[in-house]
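so my prof wants the structure for this chain in the tokens format not the other one, which i didnt know existed until like an hour ago. anyway here's the sequence
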Amino acid sequence: MTNELNDVAEFPELKFVAPRRQPPPTHLADLGLTKAQELCVSNGYPKFRATQVAKHWYGRFDSDTDSFTDLPAAERTAILDLLLPNLLTEVRQITCDNGTTAKSLWRLHDGALVESVLMRYTDRATVCISSQAGCGMACPFCATGQGGFTRNLSVAEIVCQVQRAAADMAFGRIAGGVGRLSNVVFMGMGEPLANYNTIVTAIRRMTEPAPNGFGISARGITVSTVGLVPRIKQLADEGIPVTLAVSLHAPDDELRNELVPVNNRWNVREVLDAAWYYARQTKRRVSIEYAMIKDINDQEWRGDRLGRILRGHLAHVNLIPLNPTPGSKWTASTPGAESAFVAAIERHGVAVTVRDTRGREIEGACGQLAANPN
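here's what i got, hopefully its the right format
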């Protein structure tokens, strides 16, 4: 087992099988500013060169060699190769919603593929990023889960997805002109809490101000999980008040065992107890994610049961009409079933919304990311 799999090794009942791979090149985002300065000195450069590069990359979203004009021309390429090796090569980008939703397919240094989705709204811009290449959680309605697990991403491979999205906004490369990236959601490929240490470090890079990070508010970052209970509790104690999103998808263990296999390890009650611990520690409302699947989990009685078990807690239900995936035997709930389900939850005084699905046409919506190179 390689070091990169230490987190996922905790879950032996899931299929985390991946070949040994060469780790990605070390990047500024992996190191942090202090270690980047030390690296510069050890290679014969003044330590302030690392600060200059960090100000460009984090503060101005520069990646083009020619834009680093404060570095000596004779040394510029070598310094940037040292601190900013290319980790993401864009294979393609496809758009929908009149160009305000853009899905990017990235090839990593070892050929692994991941996807991210940038979504521009009237009041915010959100990037949905991947934390793993593939996913080992095996949820049967999710294209990523059905594709299996390849490997964890590094800190920099995660942070670079955010930097590219921020640059697209800052340089007006997405419809709507120049803007600012405001939100990051760990809802792309992978189970974020199965790559725990890495995603926590990546979040710190995102939230620290330049030249240490992007200065994104922790309240603008959402971490989604299928329910890795020990990691939820650990995240609660980190002191970074990100939003926790729990992918519940069923209020009863019998069905959730089928829809979310990790429920066989930690059941609905244990997952929600951990979520309420998170809410108490952070004072943040927990988002309960629930994919609406026709005739599977959308019965009115299940809505009533969901409302009863959430009643009185700091929680909000986010209903997600099931997005189509290749070969799936399931489809989205009917409008009538959806309305009855919403009403059943609301009778218990629990807030609920139906997600405004973006990117469905380009297979960039929830559960659709599969990193298909074709």
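also thought this was worth mentioning. The chain has twelve helices and twelve strands.
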